[in-house]
Structure formats: C-alpha cells, structure tokens
Amino acid sequence: MALLKDILYKVKLLSVSGNMELDVNSIHFDSRKVLNNDVFVAINGTQVDGHEYIEAAIEKGAKAIVCENLPKKLNPEITYIQTDNSARALGLMADNFYDHPSSKLSLVAITGTNGKTTTVTLLHQLFRRLGYNVGLLSTVQNQINESVIPATHTTPDAMQLNELLQKMVKAGCSYVFMEASSHAIDQERMSGLKLAGAVFSNISHDHLDYHKSFESYIKAKKKLFDELPATAFALVNVDDKRGMVMLQNCKATKYTYSLKMMANYRAKVLSNAIQGLELNIDQKDVWFRLIGYFNAYNLLATYAVATILEEDSIEVLTHLSQIELKNGRFEQIPNNAGITAIVDYAHTPDALENVLHTIDNIRTGNEQVLTVIGCGGNRDKDKRPLMAEIACRLSDRVILTSDNPRNEEPGQIIADMQKGVPISQVRKVTNLPDRKEAIKLACSFAQKGDIILVAGKGHETYQEIKGVKHHFDDKETVNEMLNLIHNR
Ligand SMILES: CC(=O)N[C@H]1[C@@H](OP(=O)(O)OP(=O)(O)OC[C@H]2O[C@@H](n3ccc(=O)[nH]c3=O)[C@H](O)[C@@H]2O)O[C@H](CO)[C@@H](O)[C@@H]1O[C@H](C)C(=O)N[C@@H](C)C(=O)N[C@H](CCC(=O)O)C(=O)O
Ligand SMILES: Nc1ncnc2c1ncn2[C@@H]1O[C@H](COP(=O)(O)OP(=O)(O)OP(=O)(O)O)[C@@H](O)[C@H]1O
Ligand SMILES: N[C@H](CCC[C@H](N)C(=O)O)C(=O)O
Ligand SMILES: [Mg+2]
C-alpha cells in the first residue's frame, strides 16, 4: 500500500480531480491487470491508445487514473491526474513506489546496437569475481548474483525494472549492470532511475521499423546521456562516429575508448584466433577467452567501466582474462567431426558482417564457410536484403531460413532477403524456411575442417510463429544434426 500523493512525487501534474490522500495497492499500465484499489496509467502505445481502456480499468477496480487526456465524463469516485507524458510519469511513479532502489546501489546502463548483452554479462561476472553482490538486467536473463530471473525484454518495463532493482537492493547488491534498449529509452521505461554511469557501444542499422529514421534512432540513444546527472560517468566508443555525439551537452564526467585512435582507454588487438584474443590494454599484453575483433570493444568497455569504478587494473585484467561466456555469442559447439560450428546472435547487418569477418580472420582459406541465416518477422524489413548480401559476400554457401517469423509469412521474409543476393552469388544460396532442416542441410554439406555459422537466434530457446513460441534451440539443433550426420 502507498499513498497516491507520495507515488506522484516529481510527476508533472497538469490537473488533479479527486482525492490525493488515497491508499493504493499497485500501479498498472495494462487495464487487464488492474485489481481493486490500483492506479491505472493510460499510455498511448504503438498498437492502441491506453486512454481507450480507462473505463475498463475503473470497472476492474482502479481508484485513480493517470493520463494525458482526461475522459469527457469524470467519475466522481475516481481521482484523475492529468500529466504531459504518461510513460514518463509511470517511470517516476515506479521509482517512488519501490522506494528509489536505483539510488541505493550503483547502476550502470549500456546502450548501443550491438554488444550490450556481452558487456553487461562480462561486467556482472567480473564484479562477482571481485567479491561484490551484483545484479544483471539483460536480454538473455536477469540475475541477482547467480540466481536467475527469466527476462522477457532487453530492458523490462518501468514497474518490473524497479521491482527487480528493489530485490537487488534487498539482496545487498552494490552494483547492477543493465542493458538500455532504444525502445526502452524512447518509451521512458528508465525514467526516474538514478544512474551511476552510461556506456555507448555503437550504432548501426536496426529497428528502423520502430524509430522510422536513423536520426531518431540516434536521438533515442542520446537521450540516455542527456539525462545523466553530473555525478555519473559517460563512457563512449569513439571509433563509432556517433560516440562524440552522445557526449554533446552531457553533464556527466566524460570518458572515451577506442581501438583505433586517441582515447582515455585504448587497446590494440595483438592476435585474434579461434582460441581467443590477445590485447594490449594499458601497456599490458593479455590473452582473453572471448573470440572476435568486436569482442575487443566489449572487453575494453568492461575494463574501462571497472577502472572508472576504481577497481585495481591488474586484478581486473586477471579476472577478465579467465571469463568465458556460453551465451550464444560466437559460441562453438563441440563435435567429433572436426567441424567448427558457431552459434551467434548476429541479427543486424553490422553484427553479421563482424562475425563473418572474424571467421574470415581465423580461417585458413582451404575450408568452406557455410552460413545459416534468417531475419525476424514484424521487425525492420530494410535489414533483410542487407543481411543476405553480407552472408553471400563472406560465405561459400548460404542457407536462407526463418528466424522468428512472428506474424509474417516465412516465405515472404526469405523473398525480401533474397533481393539482396547479387546475381553472381545466386548459385551459393539455398532457401529452406524450416530452420531445423536448414541447419541439417548445412551440417550435411560440411566436411572436416569446414566452418558452419548459425546466426540470429543465439541463446533463444524458442521460435515464435504466429504468436506461439515453440521450443527451438540453435545450439541443441546443431549438436543433434552434427551427431546424426557425422557419427553414423
Ligand atoms: C514495440 C514495443 O516496444 N512495444 C512495447 C510497448 O507496447 P505498445 O506501445 O506496443 O503497447 P500497445 O499494445 O500499443 O498498448 C498501449 C497501452 O495500452 C494498454 N492496453 C492495451 C490493451 C488493453 O486491453 N488494455 C490496456 O490497458 C497497454 O498495456 C499499453 O500500456 O510497451 C509494452 C510495455 O512495456 C511492451 O511490452 C511492448 O513490447 C513489445 C512486446 C515488444 O516486442 N517490444 C520489443 C520490440 C522491445 O521492446 N525490444 C527491446 C529490445 C530491442 C533491441 O535492442 O534489440 C527490449 O527492450 O526488449
Ligand atoms: N561490440 C560489438 N560490436 C559489433 N558487433 C558486436 C559487438 N558485440 C557483439 N556483436 C555482435 O552482435 C551480436 C549480439 O551481441 P549482444 O547480444 O552482446 O548485443 P546486444 O546489443 O545485447 O543485442 P540486443 O539488441 O539484441 O540486445 C553478437 O552475437 C555479435 O555477433
Ligand atoms: N531484441 C531484438 C532481438 C532480435 C532477435 C532475432 N532473433 C529476431 O527475432 O528478430 C528484437 O526484438 O528485435
Ligand atoms: Mg542484448
């Protein structure tokens, strides 16, 4: 229970009608979840306008409504609060309701098109090894120390987010590392949070279905930095030309990192092999177990955050060098067939290109590279032909298949991808919508020494088809097919 006027602290009130001294149970932005004595926050969404559900929320027992547009007829038993931005109000209310959990620990958020999950996971594991209680909010899963709480979004909604943070405070966490998706920033899921720092990894083509233009996608990411307090740090990758953009008008203490130019934190890739990466960081040569040039950025960002948070650099490098991630990011599937089988979460053109370049760097040139790739349905359509073109350019054989078709026709998604295949490359390509069959085909084409890349779904353990999530796990399927075909 909480007093309505207390949970509205800091919310911009344009008008109030009714009793503010009400005791309320909880806050909901979905009328279907409202129970007696709750507050309903009406948000205009991408599909429908929550304002249309104010009556439904009252019928379910809501005693107070927070909205941008007041209904024509007000119910005298209900308190109506009009604000200028309901989504923002929800963020502030969630922070008040859960008693400001983010101000009771150090919360660091990472935004960027690629590398968020990898970096927060590295930070979580590193700070555990350094002896702290640590929280993690990521696409793959949320965690309080080693205890796992399943994740449905990269960044949870404002209520879930603050509830999780409160649990982390109660578990004695000193640090929480979280991913900040551009959707979450745009939808104000993080409003009201107190950040100790923010990191920008990179920005490339993705989510243009939602943000409409690349400029507004950049703006969404920049909002995270614009709202940082002066007590926080802002760390950006300046090898991405938008890195400096993030720092414009930012009040936080600014830091940069780079593999290519002058920066506060620099690293040089000494060797990039299938066994791992050798980097020179701060004049020290260190081997890491992560593979791929792009992971040099994730390792450097992790090192920089830990150093900014005043951890000892030698201790940080020693622990970081021991960390191995088994989370569907450039993860090798062991087998007896002498085939290098890699499952990776590359689901953007930039990520796919990076992963295939990494494979190109570690291959000998005598083997075939076979790529199995699809694109998600109900997501950015512009990336489909780009990803097919990249797959063809950097592989010897390509099987175009389904990712999560969601509510689209798999054949149509593949046809969109196929438009990116140059005529000269058509003979390399096979279309096979059934992902299991596609993986099977790649495994049957592969000979000893060859490299198979299965990209796009990484850690996911489902395939979403017409609203239903069916069990599907790339790692499990690759393993099964390699055993079936090569252990006969
Ligand atoms: C496109 C998008 O981001 N949608 C998110 C958004 O929903 P929406 O704006 O579409 O909601 P809507 O359906 O239009 O409804 C508007 C409002 O009416 C309410 N409503 C609706 C129906 C009803 O009967 N009663 C009612 O009150 C809804 O609860 C909502 O408050 O707000 C919801 C609540 O926070 C999210 O669950 C939902 O995520 C959907 C499921 C989703 O798939 N999101 C993905 C794209 C996403 O957020 N991904 C990012 C990661 C992306 C990346 O970096 O790769 C993430 O952070 O996970
Ligand atoms: N720093 C990086 N720069 C470019 N590509 C990267 C980087 N780190 C990882 N990748 C590629 O992007 C894929 C996704 O990585 P990761 O899950 O860490 O990103 P993310 O930002 O969390 O993605 P999402 O938006 O889905 O949450 C990896 O499988 C790899 O192919
Ligand atoms: N966070 C991203 C993940 C995409 C993963 C890919 N497998 C797909 O389903 O498109 C999204 O929701 O757009
Ligand atoms: Mg992620």
From TrEMBL:
Enzyme class: ligase
UniProt-listed Gene3D superfamilies: Mur ligase, C-terminal domain, Mur-like, catalytic domain, MurE/MurF, N-terminal domain
Principal subcellular localisation of the protein: cytoplasm
Any Pfam family the entry gives: Mur_ligase_M
Post-translational modification: Carboxylation is probably crucial for Mg(2+) binding and, consequently, for the gamma-phosphate positioning of ATP.
Pathway field: Cell wall biogenesis; peptidoglycan biosynthesis
GO molecular function: ATP binding; magnesium ion binding; UDP-N-acetylmuramoylalanyl-D-glutamate-2,6-diaminopimelate ligase activity
Transmembrane segments: none
Subcellular location as annotated: Cytoplasm
Name of the featured protein: UDP-N-acetylmuramoyl-L-alanyl-D-glutamate--2,6-diaminopimelate ligase
